[in-house]
Amino acid sequence: MLRNSCGRAFASVLAIGLALLALPVAPQLSNSKHNLMTTGPGVNLPSSPEEICVFCHTPVGFDASAVVPQWNRTLPSPLTYQTYDSLGTSTLKGKVAPVGSVSLVCLSCHDGTHAMSAVINASGSGSPDGTWAGVYQSGRRMLSGASGSPSTDLRNDHPIGVQYGGGGISAASPTAPTHNPDFRPPESAVLNDTRVWWIGTGAGASGTRRKTDLILYTRTSTDGYSGQTDAEPFVECASCHDPHTDKALFLRVTNTGSALCLACHIK
Asked: pTM of the predicted model, to two decimals?
């Protein structure tokens, strides 16, 4: 698998899956800690030839069950995780779905249980073979828990897989008010025959999704909560975090003055 062919394949699926991104991916990703190449700013892993995309994406042998294009890791079980709703707090008004969607993809690296080298299709292999030799040692795992990254215990993290605004919005009623009035109304459009929602951050014209907007991920009755009948917008890890940016903590919006929080929550 050559670097150029990988780059072209990844660029094409990225263009389809994230069609409205406004900024180029490669320069930002190269400068971020998600660049795991031996010369990159992240935790350095060996690959031959050197590739950026292969630690997460591959043109062949990917996990077809993942919602992220050509995901090069095996997804963990949703039952692996303890979630915020298990605390029983009365402030969580929305329905919560099992850990899934793009959040499960993030956790396939970031829950602290998976070796960073545990990919399905290793760089330069030509066919799925699973690993780079010699990099399954301790210290090669994504940091978790007290380090500031998620672990399998998500009870002390922002809720994920939760209806935006406590529910009320669906494909049948895309502009309905949220059940919780303390949330800002999302913007909505049809992209590739699918209704999508996002929270505008003021970086672009209304009605156009930008890279710095907060994405709400559509989940259907097949991967939503028990009793869900229509596609609805949910908050997931990647609603606030962009894995391809070089911004601090991979945030879509710098949280100066709580700008990220106040994009969704009304004071």
From this structure: 0.81
